[in-house]
Write a structure and sequence with these properties.
By secondary structure, the chain is of the alpha+beta class. The chain has eight helices and ten strands. The structure holds a DNA duplex.
DNA sequence: ACTATTTCCTGGATGC
DNA sequence: TGCATCCAGGAAATAG
């Protein structure tokens, strides 16, 4: 089963907020409390945003206290596990090193990029092509980071925070103030992670469809009523996708090995030329800032 | 301070 | 069949 998973690298899904939420929840239920006993990092430098030695030093001998989503990032909260009981107290320098290592709030930050996956494997499972990191856990299992396109990023931090507001937590007032006065197309503004965290191409298109707003509209041109509709639509579509276990294109599999099927509910994304599910007119596809954008001419103004 | 464009990557799809 | 070319995407870097 795991061999099949490891062999399959023709995946074509891009994890956005609902997918990352699904993956983080799945991982939390499976690795919370486990301890990272050793770390292997591959030779390809791109996926490592922090120095390899720093990542390895932070992860090794740490206990995973939680796994959660922040924007499109997966955050592993780590507790340092005491390595040597009392011998390290001998010198001041050693004490200082120990104090430093004792940082309670270390975190491993994983961004999956386009093609990144975190696989929980039994030992001995064939190493998939494009495996960039392997964490061996005290339970014997291995947590592997596999990413063919290497757009994913691994780093360590102490108190990681997303730049933009969380779409599921943001309040209407802040949502409105974030977009008001921006000349950029509303589609681009939705994708801008420093404004909102976690919205990608699929959910930008789907929320704009649901709100009845065309993607090329300048953000500043949206009325208060339209911004309110977009605010509600975005929350709805993200919550529905999380409920459905994240979108899947091709055969995306989450951390529990269960497929997500939200793509069956997509109204515009990837449906160019197909009839609008509301008015039957063909869905249009245009390019905005290099990103394909799908919308219905009749349903969106 | 913003906004727009380019770049990084691989593999799947397409065309000759 | 093989080879070249294009395309997808998030975010960082670069340019305006």
């Amino acid at each position: 089963m795991d061999d099949q998973l490891a062999d399959d690298d023709k995946l074509l899904f891009v994890p956005e907020l609902p997918e990352v939420e699904t993956i983080a929840r799945g991982l939390a239920s499976r690795v919370k409390g486990d301890i990272i006993s050793s770390v292997w990092l591959g030779s390809k430098p791109e996926p490592l945003k922090s120095p390899a030695a720093q990542i390895a030093a932070t992860l090794e001998s740490s206990r995973i206290s939680d796994v959660r989503r922040v924007g499109k990032h997966i955050v592993f909260d780590l507790d340092r596990v005491a390595r040597t009981p009392s011998s390290a107290k001998s010198s001041r320098a050693a004490k200082r090193r120990l104090d430093h290592a004792d940082e309670k709030n270390s975190q491993w930050i994983v961004h999956l990029g386009m093609s990144g996956r975190l696989l929980l494997c039994e030992p001995g499972t064939k190493i998939a092509k494009h495996t960039h990191a392997i964490l061996t856990l005290r339970s014997g299992r291995e947590l592997r980071f596999v990413d063919p396109r290497r757009f994913g990023r691994l780093s360590v931090a102490h108190s990681f925070e997303a730049l933009g507001a969380e779409p599921l937590e943001v309040e209407l007032e802040e949502f409105v103030s974030v977009f008001r006065g921006r000349k950029t197309p509303i589609k681009s503004a939705l994708l801008n992670q420093s404004l909102l965290s976690g919205v990608g191409n699929i959910y930008a298109d789907e929320s704009l469809f649901r709100a009845g707003v065309r993607p090329r509209r300048r953000a500043s041109s949206l009325t208060k009523a339209e911004l309110r509709r977009l605010f509600l639509s975005l929350k709805e579509v993200l919550n529905e996708a999380i409920k459905a276990g994240g979108s899947s294109i091709s055969n995306y599999v989450d951390a529990n090995g269960e497929a997500g099927f939200f793509q069956l509910q997509h109204h515009v994304y990837g449906r160019e030329g197909e009839p609008c599910l509301v008015c039957k007119r063909p869905i249009k596809r245009i390019v905005i800032a290099g990103r394909s954008s799908h919308y219905c001419m009749a349903c969106q103004k």
